[in-house]
Amino acid sequence: MSLSKEQIAQRIAKEVKDGYYVNLGIGIPTLVANFVRNDIEVEFQSENGILGMGPFPFDGEEDPDLINAGKQTITALPGASFFDSAMSFSMIRGQHVDLTILGAMEVAQNGDIANWKIPGKMVKGMGGAMDLVASAENIIVAMMHTNRVGESKLLKSCSLPLTGVNCVKKIVTDLAVLEIVDNTFKLLERAPGVTVEQIKEATEGDLIVEGTIPEIAF
Amino acid sequence: MINKTVANVSEACEGIADGMTFMLGGFGLSGIPENAIAQLVKRGVKDVTCISNNAGVDDFGLGLLLQKRQIKKMISSYVGENAEFERQMLSGELEVELIPQGTLAQRCQAAQSGIPGFYTPAGYGTEVAEGKEAREFNGKMHILEHAFKADFAFVKAWKGDTAGNLIFKGTARNFNPNMCGAAAITVAEVEELVPAGTLDPNHIHIPGIFVQRIFQGEHYEKRIEQRTVRKK
Q1: How far is B11 from chain A (nearest CA, A)?
Q2: Which residues numbered 16-45 in B keep a CB inside 8 Å of some CB on A?
Q3: CA–CA separation, B174 vs B185, rounded Å?
Q4: Domain A5-31+94-208 in this protein, CATH class
């Protein structure tokens, strides 16, 4: 069985360590916050200017002056701080944020990522993604292994315009957990019931399989 | 204290003209200078270039200027929420320059600080880097980006005083402080304007030196773009 979006988020949450400052992108990455162990201390950064982002407000308590980078109303946890956009990206470019989790349309085996533009279609912009991927030391991509028409999103080289080069370290998909090592995808874990053959089939880029590949545990 | 107050938005926007470049604070619809935008629509300035992280929605924020086709060029990082924007962009009526969000903030900050340019890793190896000088620092590639040049910066703060000192609230702060002093004239609109000496100097986010004109804003709608809540 391939993983649901929630399960992808749940698996990524295991990568979040005590004391981490974490930036979550829109989509599956946002769900990661729901699965972080509650016995560790983690602060979520939203690049529009908050550290210590909390859950959505209770109905009736929404504040137009308190949103996340997805423009959703949020809350600030005790100990939170607000800051301007330049300072926000000082945290990001200055590598003060420990972990960046974001979605992607394509990832290449050299760590290139494409997630902001499909030529010929409406271009919405890169937002903060280029700053994040160019600077973060620890980037995890959360995405489906294949696109809607079944084509692999893990490629020898990206076909779409790039967001950043040689930057992705780890990928969690609905089928597998992979690491980028020496210009190849290294298979670390597989979704419960998904075979190595199925993962090979769904991966266009070079895939290294060493020894027995364990199933993803939550 | 040097008094920066002007009577109203009309006086605050004195000197705006066709073809100018404006910076506008805000992220999404949060912290946008609502009064200044309304005045730009009313004055009908045309062919303007707007530096703003986003372009509003169809009927609010910069979407109002787009409706009247007053914008020639947008410089933004993300512009997805606006059908009229999409139409004008695809038809070629509107020129759009998309740049990374951190680069946008830093180009404002550089203009404020008198720094003509800076190197950033953001966008290296992508189409953003095309035509830009690239240079290696500490084994990593960076591209040269330049400070913005703008005629007016329109910012919105929560509180301000007659000396032009500003305090922002929550994530409505965003690009507003970075744009103060980054244009020839900075116009600040505030929800609450108080006499100089009323605000605690320890709490000032932007000193009045970066602000040329300040006024008490009116009728803030403060529209929420994505209302997300949880059940009690």
Answers
A1: 27
A2: 27-31
A3: 19
A4: alpha beta
